[in-house]
Structure formats: C-alpha cells, structure tokens
Specification:
This protein is about 40% helix and about 25% strand. About 45% of the residues are buried.
C-alpha cells in the first residue's frame, strides 16, 4: 500500500510538473554563423508556454553585453517576451576575424539567428532590434524578410556607414575611398578590412529597408556625432507605420541613459506584441 501510494504520488507530481508553464531561463547557445560559430544568449520568460521573441543586434566593435541591450532583454523577459542577443562574427565570444567582418556577412549572421529562433516551438512571432551598425543591419533584414518580421526597433542606427565609406572617412580615419588599403585601423586596435569598405560603398541600406511595411520605432540622440539623428528621420519617412523618438543631447552609446533607451525600446515592443 505504501509503495502504491508513493507511485501514485510521484505520478501526480510528474503530471503537475508537465502541465506547469515554462520557467524563466537564460542560457548560452551556439549558432552556425556566416564566419563560424556565433555565441548567443537566449532569455525566455516565466509562466508562458508560448511567447514572442526579439532578435537583438549590437553595433560595430561592440558585443552582446552592451548595457542597453542587456537591459532591453531583461525588460522584455519581465513582460513575457523572449530575446536572443549574440556576438556578430569577429566580435566578443564569436568566431571569425574582425578584419573579415562586413555588413553583408553580418546580415547573413542575423538570418542564421532568425532561423534558429524560428525553429523554437514556443516562439510565436519574431521581431528585431539593433543598435548602431546593428540597427542598419536590422533595417535591411526587415526589408529582406518583410512580413516575417513582426516589429523593429532601431537605436541610433548607423546608416551613415555607406556615406562614410564613400567619403573615405571611418571614425575620423581618412583613406582613399576609390582605392582603399588592405585595412584601416580604428579605435587603436580594430582593423577594418578593405572588403568592409568596398561593400559599404554600394550598400543599398534604405533601398532595402523601405520594402518593410510593418511597425517600427527609432530612438536617436540629437547629440550623436557618430551617426547623425537625421538618418533616423529618414527611416521615419520611408516607414509609414513608424514612430520616432529624438532625445535631446544623448550621444551614440547613450552614456548615462542606458536604462532609459532600453525602456523606450521595451515599451514599444510590449505595446506591439501584447497579443502575440
């Protein structure tokens, strides 16, 4: 009788466990990217069996641990929205050489991450967020994937990168735009390869992005001297279902406002994805 009761008790506990909603979880995952393995962090919410997800893209020479992106992931998790943030090839913990990084191969990285998230049975819809160069990449992904992207947030999108390559000016380092060198060294030790410059010169950023017709949000500081806020104004002009947040004096990396920019982004996603 005691053994039978124990077995029944275990069965009831097992049944209860299997019917409980999934618990919040943060896990490291590895995804095949365009130039090797991509290191990623997947955050899933507590208490939901199904949930929307946001792919979060960092900027040039940055990484997935960039504070606004971590804050965004945490805010989303608290509101029942999953996220995945990752290091692009040649960045952070991902494989690949920084000098071989180009915007086109970052676009391919995002497509690989998108495919991974799409394969997760709990995910209902997929949105995307990006900072700086990751913002420009996100806008092009939205244009390429169209309705497969539920919503978009761009934080200080660096669509200026094409114009900079044409002018032969990369973060204040000047070069021959018609005949770029093997690499341009920026920030002291980051070598930007010739292929990056050649690809950037002809990059159809807005031509591709304008194909996206979904909802979007741009957040940009007027004190941004790296990627002028006028580029976010242009996104707002080509995307009829978008909103624009111009914040006085904030710089390109939102110094001192890391939590605030993440809150604006999270609130937009929460508003859009509440029924997903």
């Amino acid at each position: 009788m005691v053994r039978r009761a124990s077995v029944l008790g275990f069965a009831l506990l097992l049944c209860l466990f299997l019917t409980l909603p999934a618990c919040a979880k943060t896990q490291s995952v590895s995804i095949d990217g365009d130039h090797g393995k991509l290191a990623a962090v997947l955050q899933t919410p507590d208490g939901k069996e199904k949930y929307p997800a946001v792919v979060i893209c960092h900027g040039f020479a940055s990484e997935k641990e960039f504070a606004p992106l971590q804050n965004l992931a945490d805010y989303l998790e608290a509101e029942g929205i999953a996220s995945i943030r990752f290091d692009f090839n040649g960045h952070g913990e991902s494989e690949g050489r920084f000098q071989d990084m180009t915007v086109p191969n970052e676009i391919e990285d995002v497509k690989k991450v998108y495919a991974y998230v799409r394969s997760l049975p709990e995910v209902t819809t997929i949105s995307i967020a990006g900072h700086s160069q990751g913002g420009a990449v996100s806008s092009m992904i939205a244009g390429e994937l169209g309705e497969k992207i539920r919503s978009v947030v761009l934080m200080a999108p660096a669509a200026v990168l094409r114009d900079d390559a044409i002018r032969g000016n990369l973060f204040g380092v000047h070069f021959d735009a018609l005949n770029p060198p093997e690499y341009v060294e920026v920030f002291g030790n980051h070598k930007v390869g010739r292929n990056y410059i050649l690809a950037a010169r002809d990059l159809p950023i807005f031509e591709t992005a304008r194909k996206y017709q979904g909802v979007a949000c741009m957040i940009h500081g007027t004190g941004d001297t790296t990627a002028p806020y006028t580029y976010s104004i242009r996104y707002n002009e080509i995307w009829p279902n978008s909103e624009l947040h111009l914040v006085p004096d904030w710089d390109h990396v939102f110094t001192g406002h890391e939590a605030e920019v993440a809150r604006i982004a999270a609130d937009f996603f929460i508003k859009v994805l509440k029924d997903d």
